[in-house]
Specification:
Blueprint lengths: L18 E5 L7 H7 L5 E6 H5 L2 H5 L2 H4 L4 E4 L5 H11 L6 E6 L1 H15 L17 E5 L5 E6 L5 E5 L6 H4 L2 H14 L6 H24 L2 H21 L3 H5 L9 H16 L5 H7 L2 H8 L12 H11 L3 H4 L7 H9 L2
Parallel strand pairs: 1-7, 2-3, 2-4
Antiparallel strand pairs: 4-6, 5-6
The chain binds zinc ion.
């Protein structure tokens, strides 16, 4: 009989994806049928404040979606009280799902509202991973910003990506910078695997080659490519976990847009991590400065935006943060301060 193979478990990584991605020009018009498919009858609409104020819901979404009530407006970086107010608005209406139109803030707020709608106790009871079994998420992404459909009723996940309605004037660069940071963070995370590298590399290569055409010339095919690359980057970092950029960007006391801060940190974190990265990935992040020059992004904080106190907020936020422990290069508070923030 052949000898038994060694029973030791070596370093393991996990990849799981239950997200249904619907991509293509015009895919936003499929939201009503996708809601129906998920069995959501009374959704609450959670909308990014900027999108709502610019009248883009009426402009973008099919009429039957644009008129959904209640409409809960999400400010930048919402807090627990604002989430609770959303829950108090949606609960009496018997909402059985949440449709989210917006970026990170709206998505987080909408998911939090959905969790509270179908689970007992306080939102903070569900902090951490593997705590929730009663809610699943379906999302779609009509622009830089995401439309995310969240429901308690279905196990399917959905994203639709429709490049037509990406608006440069409205968004500046923040969401694209965040998407680029998601691909990079996956590539310099400890949890990366061949599968996540496949997604993150393709996403980053697409940003490097297609973002100027999308942002500077609003070419439809390029916009669509950026949508799909953003989705691929999310699927990559959703599995690897995020790293140093997002760890430093975790302070609730820094009142700057999430994507903007990541964009300011990105090249510095890339140089910090570079010696620990694959040669192939090094050559990709080396192309970031010329991409940023091409799209007119200065890639660092504006003068006076970050002082000694803010620097401390960044460093303190990252202390013992799981994202920082997931970063390929270990760091001390001091090394971050000098190598990353003040470079
Ligand atoms: Zn992010």
């Amino acid at each position: 009989m052949a000898p038994r193979i060694e029973q030791t478990v070596h370093d393991t990584r996990m990849y799981a994806c239950e997200t249904r991605v619907v991509a293509g020009l015009g895919s936003i018009n499929l939201i009503p049928s996708e809601l129906e498919r998920c069995g959501i009858q009374r959704p609450a609409l959670v909308v990014d404040q900027g999108i709502a104020e610019a009248g883009l819901i009426e402009q973008w979404l099919p009429t039957e979606v644009a008129c959904i009530e209640p409409r809960i407006i999400c400010p930048m970086n919402p807090n627990l009280q604002q989430v609770q107010a959303g829950v108090d608005t949606a609960r009496p209406k018997g909402c059985d799902g949440v449709l989210i139109v917006g970026g990170g803030s709206a998505i987080c707020m909408g998911k939090a509202i959905a969790i509270c709608l179908v689970n007992h106790g306080d939102l903070l009871d569900y902090e951490g991973s593997e705590k929730i079994d009663k809610v699943s998420f379906m999302h779609s992404r009509p622009s830089y910003f995401e439309v995310l459909i969240v429901t308690a009723a279905s196990a399917h996940h959905l994203r639709t990506y429709d490049g037509r309605i990406r608006l440069r004037s409205f968004t500046s660069f923040s969401p694209s910078l965040d998407a680029i940071s998601h691909a990079c963070e996956s590539l310099w995370s400890r949890n990366r695997s061949l599968i996540t590298d496949g997604l993150a590399e393709k996403a980053l290569e697409t940003f490097l080659t297609r973002l100027p055409a999308a942002l500077n010339h609003r070419e439809l095919d390029a916009l669509q490519d950026i949508m799909e690359a953003s989705s691929a980057a999310n699927l990559a970092c959703g599995n690897t976990g995020l790293a140093l950029c997002h760890a430093m960007n975790a302070s609730p006391d820094v009142a700057l847009p999430h994507g903007y801060v990541n964009g300011c940190l990105l090249t510095a974190v890339a140089s910090f991590n570079r010696p620990f990265m694959d040669e192939r990935h090094q050559s990709m992040v080396d192309r970031l400065p010329s991409l940023f020059a091409e799209i007119g992004w200065q890639a660092k904080f504006a003068k006076g935006e970050v002082d000694r106190d803010t620097t401390e907020l960044f460093v303190n936020a990252s202390r013992d943060h799981p994202f920082r422990n997931n970063n390929i290069r270990s760091s001390s508070g001091e090394s971050i301060q000098y190598d990353v923030l003040l470079s």
